[in-house]
Design brief:
The chain has a domain at about 1-35 and about 45-65. It has no helices and nine strands. The chain has strands at about 1-5, 5-10, 15, 25, 30, 50, 60, 65, 70. The strands form three sheets. Strands 1-4-7 form a three-stranded parallel β-sheet, with no helix packed on it. Strands 2-5-8 form a three-stranded parallel β-sheet, with no helix packed on it. It is globular, with a radius of gyration of 14 Å. The N and C termini lie close together (about 10 Å).
């Protein structure tokens, strides 16, 4: 489980490789991966905030805040920022 983290300024944020199953990735703020400055020496190292290389439906990826994603939901970040936890929320936090 990867939950309630702030992941920023890496070549990649969260990566699920092929064969990964049963993971829960939720309630994370994952932005700026890759950082603004990217190496011109290794341009093929194109990063993303969340990269999902696993088979569809084998992991739970939900309610994250990110800017870029590959095969994963990535809702738009708005002026209000990430959603705050609320005890009245019926989601399983």
């Amino acid at each position: 489980m990867i939950e309630d983290n702030k992941i920023m300024g890496n070549t990649n944020g969260i990566i699920l490789v092929a064969g990964a199953e049963g993971n829960i990735i939720r309630h994370n703020t994952v932005v700026g991966n890759p950082p603004v400055q990217i190496s011109t020496t290794f341009p093929a190292a194109d990063g993303a905030d969340i990269k999902n290389g696993a088979a569809p439906g084998t992991n739970t990826i939900a309610d994250n805040v990110c800017l870029t994603a590959v095969n994963a939901p990535c809702p738009a970040v708005d002026q209000h920022g990430p959603r705050k936890k609320d005890k009245s929320d019926k989601n399983d936090w």
